[in-house]
Automatic annotation (TrEMBL):
GO terms for molecular function: hydrolase activity. This is Metallophosphoesterase family protein. It comes from Lederbergia graminis. Its EC number is 3.1.-.-. Residues 10-219 form the Calcineurin-like phosphoesterase domain. Belongs to the cyclic nucleotide phosphodiesterase class-III family. Keywords: Hydrolase, Iron, Metal-binding. InterPro entries: Calcineurin-like_PHP, CNP_phosphodiesterase-III, Metallo-depent_PP-like.
Amino acid sequence: MAILEKPELTIFLTSDIHLKNKEDETKLAQILHHISEYEDAVFICSGDLTEAGVESQFSSFYKVLEENCSLPRENILLSLGNHDVRGPSRADWSNNAKDTPSWYENARKSYLTRNYMYSGATTNVYFSNTIKGYKFIVLNTEKSLKDSCYITDNQLEWLEKELQSVPEGKVSFIINHQPLRDTHWRSNDLEGFGVQDGKVKRILLKYPNVFFVSGHVHNGFGSAEIIDKPYGTMVDVPSLFHTANGINTDGVAYKMLLYKNRAEFKAVNLLTKEEYDNYHLEVHFPLLSELYNKKQQLVDKQKDDVMFLDFCQDVFSPQYDQQQFEITPMFSSEKQEKNLFGSDYRIKVEEMKKVGVK
Ligand SMILES: [Fe+2]
Ligand SMILES: [Fe+2]
């Protein structure tokens, strides 16, 4: 009988819970009970934990978490979304990075006083936890902008040091609410990531062996994708309760099975326990970004290396016409016509990686 390989970690990737009422609390409690049944599980929510970032919603969110999730606390990684920080009053909202909207201090306090149990961080909103040797880096906005995030120079410096300390060849995780620009469908909507987009990418280009996990754009399975870029592998997590298109029932998430040599992304529903086989994906290590970086640094490139680098350029180059989506309503039943990075793309990438590691 074949011995079933056990994953090193089972990582539940969720996003955009937008908790606001009793119904949300009940659904979240059910999900947390379910994932607590897994040994070595990690629970990630990449922001928009609450609908309006008010103290009562933060309080309810963390109460549900504390009462229903029995995972080790360091295995719970939560980042702030724009809904958590911008405040309940539209009149105070701004997307201008030069502004410093005043609600931020409320959100920061609500988050830090509760999240320190999971992060150990009492002053900075950014932190990292290491679980079974894997580093999980949580970035967080330091201004309450309406849609985008604001990453200070101190946070960028810290990020670089964190990545520097990752052992050679080991993949790590960065969790941020907003995706980087020119990646996922609608990643440029409403100011996109924000003004530090280029600075973050420049750091990642030096340490590209990362999964960059984000939410915010509310793509569902069918639109949410995993995209290879020279600066890492970008993972768009569907929103748990507010998916805007594709499979848009409550409870959709990725269950990521992390093995030494690969990550299997299972498209699942954490409420109904359904699996959506058509949207499962597998990413083998090393990541394409890491291989590309290594080959690029070779002084004496052989013919195969040049061919591999050309292939990578082909993979990195397709981009959504983000412009046309800037006028698309966020919540519409429309889906983009064709996935740019569907399963065919993934198969091609994995095949070429085999050539690259030779
Ligand atoms: Fe959201
Ligand atoms: Fe958001």
